[in-house]
Amino acid sequence: MTAWYNADLAYIHDVGFRDYALKSAPGVLEILTARQIPTGLIVDLGCGSGLLTELLERDGYRVLGIDISPAMISIAQERVPTAEFRIESLFTAEIPACAAVVSIGECLNYVFDDNCDLVLNDLFQRIYRALIPGGIFIFDIVTPGQVPAGEVVKNFTEGQDWIVLVEKQEDLTRQILTRRIITFRQIGELYRRSEEVHLQRLFDVESIAKKLEQIGFRVEILDRYGQFRLPPARVAFIVQKPYAKI
């Protein structure tokens, strides 16, 4: 099985790329309050190192965090020891009855399975069944346009004890974004090199909205979480399971 976010990349992501989760969190909490979900269980799919999980718990929610990366879950458990965590693919994990499901940071785009379209449809249906009436599902996706057509974009970022180099390319025919990620992390006096290749399916917004509506969700599409405007070529969905008719 492909490894996702091994120890070094998980560490670097936690210390150097936490802004997305932290800037999204206030808006996510505002949405929960506005949709009259002040308490209850929230399932955090693709919880990563537990940055959002921590803030949800601090606001009074119970949280179940699910992530495919053991290294990410290890960091999350240290950060939020009172939350429950599971090491599983977010696409196949069992989702208990809950008030809300969140998946922040383009988690649903990751290609863990060749049949990802079928897996995604199944996930949407299972989330719908798990949500209480009036429950909500908050998530964001990456859309085409991350990289100019036919180009390869390279960049690097460095921190106190790490460097990460990323090479990105879009295959418009397959609608796949490939990220080649090379990391160097200081261990003692030396730097350890690691490499991962991540594939993400680039989704059509209208197609995703249609899938959700066919299942029964009420769909709202946004370009931000509260005051935090999403980076280019990303879209947020706030979808709600209707209240039961009396």
What's this model, at a glance?
This protein has 246 residues and is an alpha/beta fold. Helix content is 28%, strand content 37%.
Per DSSP, the total helix count is 6
Mean pLDDT: 95
For the biggest β-sheet, the strand order reads 3-2-1-4-5-13-10
**Oligomeric form of this entry?**
single chain
Note the run of SSEs as H and E: HHEHEHEEHEEEEEHEEEE
Major β-sheet annotation: 7 strands, mixed
What is the number of beta strands?
13
| Main structural class | alpha/beta
| Fraction of residues in β-strands | 35-45%
CATH classification class of the largest domain: Alpha Beta
CATH topology of the largest domain: Rossmann fold
The CATH fourth-level homologous superfamily of the largest domain = Vaccinia Virus protein VP39
Number of domains: 2
Can you tell me the CATH architecture of the largest domain?
A: 3-Layer(aba) Sandwich
Helix content: 25-40%
Shape label: globular
Taking Cα atoms only, what radius of gyration do you get, to the nearest Å?
18 Å
* Alpha-carbon distance between the two ends: 48 Å
Poorly predicted runs: none
Domain Methyltransferase type: 43-139
Keywords: Methyltransferase, Transferase
Protein name: Class I SAM-dependent methyltransferase
GO molecular function: S-adenosylmethionine-dependent methyltransferase activity
